[in-house]
Design a protein that fits this description.
single chain; 127 residues; mainly alpha; 44% helix
Length: 127
Amino acid sequence: ISMAILQPPADEGGHNLLDLKAQNEAIELMKLRTYTEPDPLWHAPWTRLADHTLALAAKAEVRRWIGHRQCHNFLLQDLDIYKNSKTLPKSLQCMLQAAKLHEAKFAPTEITLHMKLAMPFWYHLAR
């Protein structure tokens, strides 16, 4: 039985089966949204650990150039990250893959003063 028959709603002759691939991608994109939350009051605790883990997975020349302690938010900075690094957990690998697949970019509608002050002035997208 094809997915085209299983996925439509029952009232359309299908079996209302979820598209698990699409659902998993949506979960990763929601995780990415949480990771990129600009307001520090709404940052999930895991995002700091993710920053640290992603910084350790950055390519050696990046770590030498800016130091792993200065790597924050891979969407704000031009960081080359080894996506298959042994230090990178599967959950972060999936988040990076979803970001790449959907071409996630830093494009806020409004940049607040707090956001401007929080952005590192070296090694970011505008350099």
